[in-house]
């Protein structure tokens, strides 16, 4: 039976139930190692939202996850599982960095930004479009190819940084630092409400991420192309019937997906480290999968899901600091539980909730 | 007086707000063939699923052989001697007949002993019921009629005393259906009880002893088959009088609109699906393509619609308004695909979004990159009104409309584009009797307004009722052309691959 639950159940109640379950199980794990879970939650929340610098870090991580979450979501709409966000973001970071390295002598940040966006997005787009083409033309599954492209990107970046970008005579494997005029501005306007936020890495990329959400919404639900993407994703036979080209939809969607992942590079490269460095994405590409799953591939919910993971990242760091018995690895366990319950098992409670609803309706009817 | 094989009392089942079954009473006597008819969505399948343990009834009791029972899963049903032959076979195609029959009843961890036993038992069953199938044949190689026998054997092997058949003749030629009915008669003679679920009234009349009619989740009547007739049953099913035969005048064929020349379709694995097909369709006529499902009609239809591969040959459209360089639907050819769930609709989408499927790039639905939401909504509303789609709610998901209304959404979309040529596959598959009537009338109207219509259907009655000329397909080949007045036997022979000259 195809049961339709009200929107607030699907998008509100169910994720909340999943999240609570994740926290309860995580709490049991914390109990098991002899620590107080309530206290741990307190540290997480304080660490993520208690002070300006913490909020800034939370927003910084959130920004990464919005980009990678959107990337996975866009591909989902064409029923493509792009798990190569990591590699696409890495290449995107290279594009952003190259723009800055080329132009920082001549232009201020706002002059560089359009070029950085263009290069970051196109590097990411190319990196995702190749698996797209391989799928459309040769049937190579994108799950396999995109993850393989992650590994290729790691080696490629290693090589590029060591051979071409590294400052000669310097031991650190990274490019030179960009001129300060090329740095993406911090979120200084929020300094009034949130003192200390400008000491954190949070930067203008956050606003760009929100704009990307609007872009994705319009693309998917308002354009002819978005319609074709959704038809293809929901029913490939209907797409064939409607004269929609598989190649066009898959390759373009993958490219857009990769471009969004690539834009993530703005945040750490131009906004925080201000240089090209090793492991730019720092797992954000993978977290994006969970964010997209939890956010049901809808930009609005992706913002919330990204914020949740941002909170866990930043609050988790605080927790590891305050309660040394809970190590960094424990935080990963908690994040893993959230991904497990909110992402992989997102429909676990659905039958029960659906039954509860049908009982209520029968009672009312 | 023996206890009835099955007695249901007060069975109710709802899914959310939908009452699939409401207070159903049913008594099936031992050793009879009992038909259950009803439109799609009348609740037949739900009721049988309750009997077979897939669903639990919310209320009511089930008694088998006079004993009240609870059937919590299909194992329990099998334990009670209830067997089911599903509409879509549950067979492992690469396995042999014997292996399929044993499946789930292997009798131990090692196969050898069980296999020998199963073979003996299978031979006994085959002899007893005229169910001749080679135990060592690979199921995937067997024609559907034989696959169905394997399903029946499977049920009997598990000791079924009561056999439920869900729409068993949908995939059979008239000949195969007759054979199935003989088997069912044999089963009855051996004291087995058969429950036959169907929407085909003629089958009910031909084979059953009793018939129960369901409508909107309720059991509206039970009759001795001998005491009723097709008209009464149709009326009971729909709840009002229905015209079973469409009135149509003589066709006035005009110029040739569609010509297919030496068309060959070869699938991915190199099998020739359509062999050297040539025919024409003229304005103002309906050309029907009859045949058992899977004999190349789908491939032919898709090739003509321009969405399936063509190995060789040509499809030509004549005197058509529109740009010939464009994709065919924008070029005066409407296509109602055979399977609306798989192809004609995106069931997850709203009715409104389905209005533009295939026409999403048309200027009327927005210039440039963006869709004009208002224009789409307007078109959807207008189409729903003109085709009497119920409920007329463009924001409702396509999946939530009944089969008939879904089909009207597809028909509306294709017809409203005013194509010169319309190709239609299975226009009334899964559509209730009431809606069939209006769809048939609509097709005749279209014909009379000068459209060229190519109709593919596995329902022989439908083909004969609507077509002005009938082409019969078998194994990818057009076996011959007959007029609508041709006898069922004549068409049936062509459908099973026997040409008129061979038969004579």
UniProtKB/TrEMBL annotation, chain A:
Transmembrane segments annotated in the record for this chain: 12-34, 54-77, 89-107, 113-135, 142-161, 202-220, 241-266, 330-349
Keyword Iron: no
Alphabetized Pfam families for the sequence: BPD_transp_2 (PF02653)
Keywords recorded for this protein, A-Z: Cell membrane, Membrane, Sugar transport, Transmembrane, Transmembrane helix, Transport
Molecular function terms from GO: transmembrane transporter activity
GO cellular component terms, semicolon-separated: plasma membrane
Alphabetical list of InterPro entries matching this protein: ABC_transp_permease
Cell compartments where the protein resides: Cell membrane
Membrane topology: Multi-pass membrane protein
Signal sequence coordinates: none
PANTHER family: ABC TRANSPORTER, PERMEASE PROTEIN (PTHR47089), GUANOSINE ABC TRANSPORTER PERMEASE PROTEIN NUPP (PTHR47089:SF1)
Protein known as: Simple sugar transport system permease protein
Species for this entry: Pontivivens marinum
From TrEMBL, chain B:
Intracellular or extracellular location(s): Cell membrane
InterPro entries from the UniProt entry: AAA+_ATPase, ABC_carbohydrate_import_ATPase, ABC_transporter-like_ATP-bd, ABC_transporter-like_CS, P-loop_NTPase
Matches recorded under SMART domains: AAA
Keyword line: ATP-binding, Cell membrane, Membrane, Nucleotide-binding, Repeat, Sugar transport, Translocase, Transport
PROSITE patterns attached to this UniProt entry: ABC_TRANSPORTER_1, ABC_TRANSPORTER_2
Gene3D superfamilies per UniProt: P-loop containing nucleotide triphosphate hydrolases (3.40.50.300)
Domain of life (superkingdom): Bacteria
GO cellular component: plasma membrane
Main localization, broad class: membrane
Annotated GO MF terms: ATP binding; ATP hydrolysis activity
Membrane topology label: Peripheral membrane protein
Domain ABC transporter positions: 6-241, 258-500
Protein name in UniProt: Simple sugar transport system ATP-binding protein
Organism per entry: Pontivivens marinum
Origin organism lineage: Bacteria, Pseudomonadati, Pseudomonadota, Alphaproteobacteria, Rhodobacterales
